[in-house]
Amino acid sequence: MEGMTEDRGELPPGLALSWGVQPVQRRGPKPALSVEQIVATGIGFGDSHGFEAVSLQRIAARLGVSTNAMYRYVRSKDELIVLVQDKAFGPPPELPSGWREAATAWVHAQVDRYAERPWLLDIPIRGAPVTPNQLRWVEVMLAALDSTGLSQHDNLGCLVILNGYARNHASLVRQLEASDNTPVQAEQVGRFLVPRLIEGGYPMMTALYTNQEYEDGVDDDLEFGLTRILDGIEVLINRKS
Amino acid sequence: MEGMTEDRGELPPGLALSWGVQPVQRRGPKPALSVEQIVATGIGFGDSHGFEAVSLQRIAARLGVSTNAMYRYVRSKDELIVLVQDKAFGPPPELPSGWREAATAWVHAQVDRYAERPWLLDIPIRGAPVTPNQLRWVEVMLAALDSTGLSQHDNLGCLVILNGYARNHASLVRQLEASDNTPVQAEQVGRFLVPRLIEGGYPMMTALYTNQEYEDGVDDDLEFGLTRILDGIEVLINRKS
DNA sequence: GAAAACTGTTCAGCCCATACGCTGTTTCTC
DNA sequence: GAGAAACAGCGTATGGGCTGAACAGTTTTC
Q: Where is B196: in which H helix or E strand?
């Protein structure tokens, strides 16, 4: 490809870089760093100390470079985050045949990714996915849904539901893992809350809390919700045929 | 209630204050501010300038007080955010009878709330809901699902799906509103992306982009996903009876 | 060899949350 | 009524973050 230097003036942050399009340099000293190196370091910090730890300062310090040197490689922190997100999430797995099996595997894979790197859940969603790995996830799921006979529009709708459910579930699991670590505190919360629930007219919540079902009932029951959603999609498929 | 001064030592941030439990003060000057006032000011900034704008500095400045005076009312920013979140989201509406109608109204109401105050989507979810309004939302939905004959556990599972879908959908709508404002940029993204999709082996994505269906197909189709989910739940209900 | 382009650096500005110590005010207790 | 205790808000200070501008050094091109 010759026109690799196309002007990326108004493209959203991270788009060009995530596809490996970098401004070709002709003169001047060789860069001491590379975008890949910077992104990898950012992921390292995310893995070890969470999303808040992936900052330009820290990455620069780790790489033995001044903070502002980062701006020779990345236009803004936002751009860096987009790159980190795409790289850290990685590509999707191969999906089994059969839309139901494929969807199940797809959701499981996403949940697993989030389990490996929970800090990815802290990255705010900027817009429609445009980076290579993100689009690959969409691609494989759409391919799997192609056999359902639904319209492109409906397939996309199903994908959005499944994706949202995966992310939502991963987020829930993460919360539970974080709060279940302190059963002492959970019990103290209950002692504070229950009288107020009774007095405030929260019968269902009271039952939940006194049944010990809360904080416990919302276990990592991925299959339950997934089955509901898949059943709902299946109803639609059967109706159309 | 006499024991209002129970020690709230180890309770999570915002729990006590959100339920109106404040340390009773006996001596010293009267506070110039109130927690309600602070929270209301925070919500004001959120409404006018987004979540990032709700900072202790700004609130303090607006109220004509030094930044650190805030810490006489709130233990940390986290605590403030919890209070702001609960107050800004507000209480749920009355739900119609019939679990399906109720769930539909519940999801719609949540989406509407997020449409009114999109910045609420930027608040990270800390843990299981414990504040009065949040719990009220759970309460009314559980009450509506009580007639399904499902177990408490299953009802909670359904609620989680619906809640996740509502939040996810609101988030999508917000993205679209933010990105659709610049059709010029969207077209430029397409020009950058399509050749790479073709070359990179993204047939479904290519079709989507060339069909103009992307950025457009994910419209605010709340009903589509909701119908799938409700159908899926209905399958479960019918199976159990 | 000179000019252009590009590197990383330092300096600087502005934002944020938070800790500490001070002064003045209010109220309880003796 | 006087002193002590408790509490308000303030100023100062620390540490972290993102980003812009000016600058000196390096490499390539003309």
A: helix B183-200
- Does B90-180+215-240 carry CATH code 1.10.357.10? yes
Tell me, what's the pLDDT at B26? 75
- Contact between B225 and B169 under an 8 Å Cβ cutoff? The reply is yes
Shortest CA distance to B23 belongs to which of B72, B94, B62? B72
Rounded distance between C-alpha atoms, residue B200 and residue B206, angstroms? 10
Contacts of residue A230 in chain B, CB cutoff 8 Å?
232
CA of A179 to C1' of C8 (A): 45
Please state whether strand D lies within 7 Å of residue A151 at its CB atom.
Answer: no
- Which residues, including other chains, have CB under 8 Å from residue B203's CB and lie 6 or more apart? A139, A143
B207: its two tokens: 């079709």
Determine the residue of chain B that is closest to A224 in CA distance.
Answer: B157
Asked if B208 and B214 count as a contact pair (C-beta separation under 8 A), the reply is yes
Its pTM stands at: 0.92
Contacts of B132 (CB under 8 A, 6+ apart): A200, B18, B19, B86
- Strand D at less than 7 A from CB of A29: yes
| A185/B12 Cβ within 8 A | yes
B23 CB neighbours strand D below 7 A: yes
Q: Which residue of B has its CA nearest to A207?
A: B152
CB–CB of A130 and B189 under 8 A?
A: yes
> Over the stretch B182-225, which tens digit does the pLDDT of each residue have?
777 788 899 999 999 999 999 999 999 888 666 554 566 899 99
Note which residues in 173-202 of chain A have CB less than 8 A from chain B: 175, 178-179, 184-185, 188-189, 192-193, 196-197, 200, 202
- Per CATH, the number for B12-88 is 1.10.10.60
What pLDDT score does A115 carry? 96
CATH superfamily of A11-88: Homeodomain-like (1.10.10.60)
- Report the 10 Å Cβ neighbour count for B116: 12
pLDDT in tens, B166-194: 999 999 999 888 876 677 778 889 999 99
pLDDT tens sequence for chain B (241 residues): 333 334 445 788 899 999 998 888 778 888 999 999 999 999 999 999 999 999 999 999 999 999 999 999 999 999 999 999 999 999 999 999 999 999 999 999 999 999 999 999 999 988 889 999 999 999 999 999 999 999 999 999 999 999 999 999 999 999 888 876 677 778 889 999 999 999 999 999 999 988 866 655 456 689 999 999 999 999 999 998 8
**A92-180+215-240: which CATH topology?**
Tetracycline Repressor; domain 2 (1.10.357)
Contact A235 B233 (CB under 8 A): no
